[in-house]
Amino acid sequence: MIRQLILGKNRLSITVQTIVFSAYNGNAEGTINQDWLKNMKVLYLTIMQNLVELLGEDLLREDDEREPKTRPYDQRAWHQLALRARALGFESDKIICLSRTDSDQEMARRALLNARPAELFDYGKELDGLISVVVKLFKKA
After folding, report:
1. Nearest CA to 83 among 66, 101, 71?
2. Looking at the structure, do residues 29 and 97 belong to the same domain, yes or no?
3. Which residue in 1, 37, 46, 82 has a CA-CA distance of 20 to 30 Å to 55?
4. Same domain, yes or no, for 30 and 87?
5. Contacts of 51 (CB under 8 A, 6+ apart)
6. Boundaries of domain holding 141
7. Which of 19-28, 82-91, 112-121, 129-138 is the least confident region?
């Protein structure tokens, strides 16, 4: 999961620890060795707390339970994980991309365009402002 967060779909034959260390952007040279392992552990725990949402499937089930339904891709969980990774000092192209993609904005855009398709309704320059209003409503809910 950490490898996917940092590298995306690229698969390299190096350890996760090497990948994480290469993506760590410590504040000062002296603190990089002291903080990166602690921050990697925090990132790992964050992943484990949100594993079901990140993977999109239930991990544990009883013997008598049916196969779990596949959950939809949870863009918000990946966005939150990327924000947490950046706050801990990790940076990669994938982390930057995920942290810039706000699921509330995407959902608001889809809701507006589904309710009033752009072909039939002229948003003009107001679309971004309307999206911001809907995002604020989402955050209040």
Report:
1. 101
2. yes
3. 37
4. yes
5. 1, 59
6. 102-141
7. 19-28
Quickly tell me which residue has 């602690």 as its tokens.
Answer: 38
Place of tokens 């608001």: 108
Task: Give me 47's structure tokens.
Answer: 């992943």
User: CA dist 131 to 33, 58, 91, 104, 137, Å?
Assistant: 42, 32, 28, 9, 10
Tokens of 65: 């339970």
- In SS3 terms, 18-77 reads as HHHHHHECCCCHHHHHHHHHHHHHHHHHHHHHCHHHHHCCCCCCCCCCCCCCCCCCCHHH
Residue 65 CB coordination number (10 Å):
9
DSSP at 90: B
The string of pLDDT tens digits covering residues 107-127 is 888 899 999 888 888 888 888
DSSP string, 114-141: HHS-TTTS--GGGHHHHHHHHHHHHHH-
Q: What is the pLDDT of residue 13?
A: 54
Judgement on whether residues 14 and 64 belong to the same structural domain of the protein: yes
